[in-house]
Amino acid sequence: MILGGNGVADVLNFDDKPKEECGLFGIYGPNLDVANVTYYGLYALQHRGQESAGIAVSDGKRFKIHKDMGLVPEVFDEKLLEPMKGFIAIGHVRYSTTGSSLVANAQPLNFRYLKGLISLAHNGNLTNANEIRHRLALNGSVFQTTTDSEVIVKLIARYGQGSIEEALMKTMIDIKGAFSLLVMTEDKLIGVRDAYGVRPLCIGKMGDAFILASETCALDTVGAEFIRDVDPGEIVVIDGKGLRSIQTLKNPRQAFCVFEFVYLARPDSNFSGQNVTLVRREMGRQLAREYPVEADIVIPVPDSGIAAALGYAEASGIPYMEGLMKNRYIGRTFIQPDQKMRETAVRLKLNPIQGILEGKRVVMVDDSIVRGTTCKQIVQMLRNAGAVEVHLLVSSPPIHYPCYYGIDTSERNQLIAAKRSLDDIRKFIAADGLHYLSLDGMLKATGLPVDNFCAACFTGDYAIEIPQNVGKYSMEIEVD
Amino acid sequence: MILGGNGVADVLNFDDKPKEECGLFGIYGPNLDVANVTYYGLYALQHRGQESAGIAVSDGKRFKIHKDMGLVPEVFDEKLLEPMKGFIAIGHVRYSTTGSSLVANAQPLNFRYLKGLISLAHNGNLTNANEIRHRLALNGSVFQTTTDSEVIVKLIARYGQGSIEEALMKTMIDIKGAFSLLVMTEDKLIGVRDAYGVRPLCIGKMGDAFILASETCALDTVGAEFIRDVDPGEIVVIDGKGLRSIQTLKNPRQAFCVFEFVYLARPDSNFSGQNVTLVRREMGRQLAREYPVEADIVIPVPDSGIAAALGYAEASGIPYMEGLMKNRYIGRTFIQPDQKMRETAVRLKLNPIQGILEGKRVVMVDDSIVRGTTCKQIVQMLRNAGAVEVHLLVSSPPIHYPCYYGIDTSERNQLIAAKRSLDDIRKFIAADGLHYLSLDGMLKATGLPVDNFCAACFTGDYAIEIPQNVGKYSMEIEVD
Amino acid sequence: MILGGNGVADVLNFDDKPKEECGLFGIYGPNLDVANVTYYGLYALQHRGQESAGIAVSDGKRFKIHKDMGLVPEVFDEKLLEPMKGFIAIGHVRYSTTGSSLVANAQPLNFRYLKGLISLAHNGNLTNANEIRHRLALNGSVFQTTTDSEVIVKLIARYGQGSIEEALMKTMIDIKGAFSLLVMTEDKLIGVRDAYGVRPLCIGKMGDAFILASETCALDTVGAEFIRDVDPGEIVVIDGKGLRSIQTLKNPRQAFCVFEFVYLARPDSNFSGQNVTLVRREMGRQLAREYPVEADIVIPVPDSGIAAALGYAEASGIPYMEGLMKNRYIGRTFIQPDQKMRETAVRLKLNPIQGILEGKRVVMVDDSIVRGTTCKQIVQMLRNAGAVEVHLLVSSPPIHYPCYYGIDTSERNQLIAAKRSLDDIRKFIAADGLHYLSLDGMLKATGLPVDNFCAACFTGDYAIEIPQNVGKYSMEIEVD
Amino acid sequence: MILGGNGVADVLNFDDKPKEECGLFGIYGPNLDVANVTYYGLYALQHRGQESAGIAVSDGKRFKIHKDMGLVPEVFDEKLLEPMKGFIAIGHVRYSTTGSSLVANAQPLNFRYLKGLISLAHNGNLTNANEIRHRLALNGSVFQTTTDSEVIVKLIARYGQGSIEEALMKTMIDIKGAFSLLVMTEDKLIGVRDAYGVRPLCIGKMGDAFILASETCALDTVGAEFIRDVDPGEIVVIDGKGLRSIQTLKNPRQAFCVFEFVYLARPDSNFSGQNVTLVRREMGRQLAREYPVEADIVIPVPDSGIAAALGYAEASGIPYMEGLMKNRYIGRTFIQPDQKMRETAVRLKLNPIQGILEGKRVVMVDDSIVRGTTCKQIVQMLRNAGAVEVHLLVSSPPIHYPCYYGIDTSERNQLIAAKRSLDDIRKFIAADGLHYLSLDGMLKATGLPVDNFCAACFTGDYAIEIPQNVGKYSMEIEVD
After folding, report:
1. pLDDT at residue A16 above 80?
2. ipTM of the assembly?
3. A198 and A302 share a domain?
């Protein structure tokens, strides 16, 4: 399909950050304009996916669906939302990890099976999707998208002779990996979280209405009250009789993604009762305790390094300054400068402030490094602006391993820490000092038990079996 | 998905004509820009479907697909076609008969099954699609579109363990109804026509390349040579080894849709060697023989009545005049006039020429009447412009029955001839005379054997079993 | 400004016809939705200009204006027209003769001068625009468009101390050339026609409302009654007190453009009481009288040659056939075929019907030839389809001279008849015979006095002084 | 003209900040892709105007111009910039103060006068535009836009018999008010600053190329070196012979807008050598000295209050916390929530973090207050999140008077400080404390002499005569 201004290909790739793949928002609210509420909920979760957005609404008989490539306010307007009447809605924002950046892959996925209509939204990544896909194809299944989520849909339909709850329980036995799911039937809203609780999902309430959302910030935005997180292995079913819980397989060891605390989640969200920005500030304090540096100022790499930089400054007593100005108008598109102006692309986004940096020994705090290329450019910019020393302090450990559970950290061979020693990295980015927060320091800063977390990207200790032959499933169809 | 200017809902409904549902164009051409050739082929077949257009291309490994709502030049431009490189292409233009007017229903349909990729384009209508759909759902199939064509796709996949040719042969045993199909695999172009030959499909050649198309006008446009029609029940397979034919079930009685000659096909196309416009002119002559009228001038309802009106004038000796001016710029959209200007909508499209009509006894020739509402308005316009008598002569018999084989003639209760006697119709449209061409006269004018044809809309004699419980399959999903 | 799908550059240039430059429609109607009526009026005049469309409405105090590149239904929709409330409106469709194809040049032009607001729409071409522009620039005027019309606006403002009628009378003394104008002030609708009456303008009435329009077909479309043509040199002022006329300079010799009858106007329009299509049919009859040819069939070049071909067939007794099928879906854009498919572009638009042409001696009738390139291609197509002889008969004389009064006939050196003898042209287009209607025959066919007409493109006899140094005024600003 | 998604009307009006009206960027660079450089320069100046953007390029003979409503990356893409070749370019971003939000008012304005082509971009506001407009209309001038800038254009043309420099000098004598101008002729780039230096304009150099820009951050972004500010009353002319200066009237008292330091300019820009973010931090420190408050945390209203909040925290020793989370994805459009969700609109943009605020006495720092409505909502949100005390500290004095020099502070009757006492304001916003920085404190924090500044919005002391009868000039034409 033709996309208005398909910014997808133009996404700025400065960020050098792992990419969150999806955000979920669902509501069961008989007296509410559920499509509008979902719109606001998705707006609050926009940081979890900027490639596509979609909403499906049930009025008890029919589904109305709209989804497209783009940000929430680009995909939806009053005219589109107005006819989407109903009492249940689920919505999805997506950054693709499996499947290409195509509108056909946008979610929620909608289909009719033996028992009626189903709409499904998925956050996470299956580790055995290819296996199941092959198994289904042998039985004559066809695939129109390249997403893991279509695999889940097909399984639900295969088990479709009984109730939807039974079909989901059977499906959860087949699929491996990380998944938080929202499922909508004509008259039910269902939330599912995998046995390890890798991806977040929480429950809120607004009057009589129930809400399921990836992060608490979405509850705040729509004015709902936080009730509790969905438990690992739990199926939450909401219908006319209220909310009931089915506890399926729950792994003894949980594996909540620690990177949600480090970078992915919005600062104002809470997980397991811990506020994200306060955890990040504590990571900064811990960093200062682990690596005290003699310096004149502490500056963040905006915006993701701000909380940790404030923590570092607080614990170290070194003044916090805003040494890098971020252009708030840089959107997803701009024209690539030619060779003559190669620094312009970076300066368009970040401009060092000479009046702050000149003659200073600088501690620059960032939350994480993936490939290291952006750091290198920033360090150079700081020196050009007069910084006499630049020490890079990172508020998480080196990323050594890829994530198979739904975060795009790039291939292993692109991870700078997987290839180079600490000192080599320091030399590569040309910093005077480079320090990463320790694994223990990071986990301690969360204020939660250590074995709650998946930290496999730092440790290689994968809680859930990973596939031998990794790679995006090649559908070899490019539908645009 | 968001449509640029979704004209669909705005289609002018003056026409009061049966709607053709689809046009097909496929090419196997190793040294050609197959996407471009298909674009021109679809352009020539635009009259067969104006709702959506799509092209899929195979380069031997991958498919590139683009489809969207709109006319061919609205859906495609250079930038979109340029990257669609390959050596096989199939294309489709669509006016929906089953399935709603949604981009998800646009064709070709593309999918991956056990043996690889398949793209399918369909012209026609299955009479047992709901039955098969239910049978498949019991086995766990899910449906994402509301088209008959998805049913065909699922069956091919169910029979997917053997060769594609075998899968098609098995599928043809299951499905009932009218279908001309184009199927593309990674390395083959396949054409299929149902056992009755209801919908057309012909073979052309351009250098080494083979072409399959709904009408010969598409061959002319791309500069290809006409080879022959695909036979009823024939599967034509084109690949690196050339063209080979598999003759499956061929019904003794054929049932080529006579309405292709009456109205649907382009005047410059030929079927079974007979040119469409010459057949229409002969229908007009036959009409004059059957119903001589005393009149001063013969005028057509432009454009579809022109050939028959010329025939009528020729055979009757009454001068042919252009008494109605058609606005060539009326597109698919215009703003509905309010009550004060209710005649404006019609006059925007057709304006009677007073200088030609004043004081004249007029024979007006049209090819067919469905609901009769437009005729009524035109007759009134002619009188207002000074015509003293208006005789409506129709170059086909009254439409008494709906079509189940892919032509949208509206529900039976909307067919004016199904509800009213000839004289009632004449009174309704307020004409001085009304005459329809006889069934025999129509069939004779084709110059082909009578039992070649399906004329069920005139006679109720359905060659292929029709479903008991008719109606568009309600998917109850509205995806936009 | 950014144009949606700027078809402008993609206009098919097959037509090889002079281009009409503009259509005007204005209404003074206190109880009507004047913007809507103007929309329908412009729709009926779309053939006079397809590049841009615009409407301005006065509510007595303010003007609401909308204009853009594109066809009327592309430029306007309900949402845009809805807020355009008022009791006077003027509208304009444009094909550029002076000024580039830019939205800044779209009309009506709107401005505020000493006495208030003025909106102006212009059909025609000034011959002394550059002279006046230079004169005004010496006094400090600036120009933001490249149109003649801005020159008229500036002159009205210079004479703006008195009444608008006085300002127009003074302006008409300064400007030379062809012009029909609509002028709207806060409370008046004014129509102006130049002293020679080169471009048409007529008056209609619909209840209490008055209408001014380029052609009578626009009156028919909106359901208005034709009153009379505006006289050469007449100013027609319509306001709350009704319609009054100011007769300024009227040239003894009129110079109505005969090409309006030959090609430009819509067949259902009348000028000086003569219907256009009947005049064209008579031209065809006259052509048969002047040049009888031995042939089997008469075919038109659709659509412009149809009326004359019918006349030729009628007078000669040779059967009229539709030998060329015109694709009704060819819009303003399509993708240019590459070299391998060079005939495709023509065939996309016109397809010869072999069944009609094979073995026939063909008389092909067209209304006019400008460069001759398209004729040449069509003649070749007819031969390829089996025609044994092709005689081209043209229902107007050879075009020897360019038009300076608002019709784009191309530069003189592109006019085939200006460069080649009749026999050379015949050889160039490779026809067996070539005949043009005589000047006298053409003028006689109009049924009007010979000295009513400007036929300068045929004769070189320019009624109004033409500029020495011709050429589009180069503004050297390209505003997009 | 039709705007894609006319965000204009949808601009979020939370901000409650004065609106900067324009940003200017010009370059004279024979060997550079001047259109691209200007694009990046405008991108860096986007904060100065988000309604429209435009670029004009001269190649020595012709101008290429593109402008439209929207942000820089929305208005321009590679395809549009590619053909804009030349060696001089000027660009403009605009937030309208005079003139409506219409594309016709977008700049640069381009025109042809006696001596050739001129393109003009204007930052500021004339105080005698209506007077001059009337004077010009008496002489027959017409106006097509509602901007002050068109008045300047007309004056230049009136004085157009001599050189462009002379015309500019004469024009500067006529016009009163605030203006920084860029003027481009076929071969010159000219910068002009009014006699009081109200609006900024600086000079940069990049290799041989000269740049003129509103702020130094644009120089940084394109990689240019800062040379100096343009002086009040100075005309800077850049052509093939280099840069030369003409010093016209320079007022003894300068009047640089102090609000550039307070809020308008980008933090990384410098004026008169003073860095904006450091000045803002010092304002925060000064605020802490003037108004020490007993509190637990200092939080900013993001983003404009951050620098001052850091300064306040630093000087007071109270910890700086990020208590309000700003949604980075809130663009210019979102759907208005209905009554049931009235808090959602604010929470969509700003979410209080309970974990930080609960039980705390909060000092909240903002840079300025216009109407006070947003403050009131934020204070309420903080309390709902558990803050026990909320003190609002504002790093500039109360705004008592409107600005006539190009900043949109709203009408006087909307300025909360113009209508209410300090204590009334505090009650209105329901804060426990409210303190504004003193005028002296603010000016001292700039580090520059007091009489350099215009602070009329705080003091009512207008350096330049203001008009008696204020109000946007009503053109009474609404062109869209």
Report:
1. no
2. 0.89
3. no
